[in-house]
Amino acid sequence: MLSPFDARRSHQETQYVGRFAPSPSGPLHLGSLVAALGSYLRARQMDGKWLLRIEDIDPPREQANADELIKETLVRHGLLWDEDVIYQHNSHERYEQALKYLRVNGHCYFCQCTRKQRLANPKGQPCACAQLALSPQGSATVLRNTVAVHEIDDLALGRVSFEEQSKDDFILRRKDGLYAYQLAVVVDDIASGVTEVVRGADILPATAYQLALYNLFAQPAPAYVHLPLVMGDNGQKLSKQNHAPPLNNELASSNLCTALETLGLRVPSHLNNAPVTDILDFAVHNWSVALTADNPHAFDNRIDA
């Protein structure tokens, strides 16, 4: 079966395309803003597109109206996206085509293990289900990971080596029928022509799995920039799961200045209360990935791969 995607093409031949892809499980917090701001600045500096994708493939975790709150917060902070907002719930047919391609070419198996059983399985070894002809009913669809990626060159972190977990098989569609993040993010990034992914360092371990899918789909992988995490007073990274406080849109200018400091760029005092457009204009002309990479404290709390 032929690949469900267009013929392989070089990113060198295409326009820069970046994206911000939040899940609608709650409003944006400061950590979200750092990721959004970094990806926005890269796209504007490269004279490219900046897309907004709402990753709504996990309804049990979603919060009513969160997508509208996210869009409002981005607008209030001057982070205006290009083109129409992409919603992952509209991509199910594309995910199914990608799954069919992987199944037909022998890259998948069905698994009925619990999460606890999968975690107990030896690293880099498929579970017993891989040898069984299980029914897809009540089973997860799992990638047979034969193209494990061991390291990448990250534009902020430099050379990153992945642990043995990069060799693990991983779920593409859950037992409940919902598509898994690893599959959806790769399929959608390919469909949108994303050339560079800028996101928080907490997603770094997943990069190895996603690169395995790029290889199997015979598509060029994007460049990666993993940004520092924002930590709370309790030492945990700010996240919706940890009940991070939502951004106050009335303090958008102050929020941007704080986010830029996390990225290694100090905003001049005369801009502290300036309109967000002025702060963003300053950032576009003065921030670089190198500033973040050279910040001695930026990655003190980085989650290693």
Automatic annotation (TrEMBL):
The lineage of its organism: Bacteria, Pseudomonadati, Pseudomonadota, Gammaproteobacteria, Alteromonadales. Pfam families: tRNA-synt_1c. InterPro entries: Glu-Q_tRNA(Asp)_Synthase, Glu/Gln-tRNA-synth, Glu/Gln-tRNA-synth_Ib_cat-dom, GluQ/Sye, Rossmann-like_a/b/a_fold. NCBIfam families: PRK05710.1-3 (NF004314), queuosine_YadB (TIGR03838). This is Glutamyl-Q tRNA(Asp) synthetase. Its EC number is 6.1.1.-. Gene3D superfamilies: HUPs. Keywords: Aminoacyl-tRNA synthetase, ATP-binding, Ligase, Metal-binding, Nucleotide-binding, Protein biosynthesis, Zinc. GO terms for cellular component: cytosol. Belongs to the class-I aminoacyl-tRNA synthetase family. GO terms for biological process: glutamyl-tRNA aminoacylation; tRNA modification. SUPFAM superfamilies: Nucleotidylyl transferase. The keyword ATP-binding applies. One of its GO terms (molecular function) is glutamate-tRNA ligase activity. Residues 18-243 form the Glutamyl/glutaminyl-tRNA synthetase class Ib catalytic domain.
